[in-house]
Amino acid sequence: MSIFLVKKQDIDCVEPLIEDEDVLSLLEEYFGTQLSNKWKEVEAKWHQERGDLICDFPFLLGTIPLCSLKVYHKLQEKLNLEGIEFLPIKIENKLYYIMNPCLSIKGILNKKKSKIDYFSNGEIMWVSKYVFYPNEIGASMFKIPEMYTSIFVTTSFAEFIKENHFIGIDFEPCEIKKESILSRIFK
Asked: What pTM does this model have?
């Protein structure tokens, strides 16, 4: 099994624009936790900055993936979507879903092998290279508590997207390395 960092594909697509400040605040504060009980019907429009192509996976605020209704149904048929909340959003009267991964997996980031920048207080500022411990992950999309803005997927999700030629979403492979015997001894 492989793990991939989810990224916005570098193509010229329109982006969803939500003008409701309450919804934006809710997403900024609680994305990655269960939101369905706080979610209301959300309206948005397309924002053309670089292109006019509407992707299968547009990104909100540059980091939050959405999927079209067509993609949503295909995902439901083929993948384990446990831990992913699909929040409905209407963009110019067409239904999309914000993909909210609520599953956060602790203890899988290999901090010694990853490239991590820290704040002076010891908290993680940024991870430029993710390295994970080998682990069986049943879910197809998840987050990690160390870098809550990043979203990860497993091989099944990435392969499904590529096989179906969906556009808008890209995947950066992450390394998987076992913890060395010496590092276990000298913890």
From this structure: 0.90
171: β partners: 6
Classify the C-alpha dihedral 120-124-126-132 as positive or negative.
Answer: positive
Q: Where are the domains of the chain?
A: 3-185
How many residues does the structure list for the chain? 187
DSSP reduced 3-state for 116: strand
Specify the DSSP element, H or E, that contains 28.
helix 21-30
Give 115-153 pLDDT, tens digit per residue.
999 999 999 999 999 999 998 888 899 999 999 889 999
User: Among residues 103, 55, 56, which one has the least CA distance to residue 80?
Assistant: 103
Q: Residue 153 corresponds to which tokens in the numbers above?
A: 């997927």
Q: CA-to-CA distance for 179 and 89, rounded, in angstroms? A: 42
DSSP H or E segment with residue 163:
helix 155-163
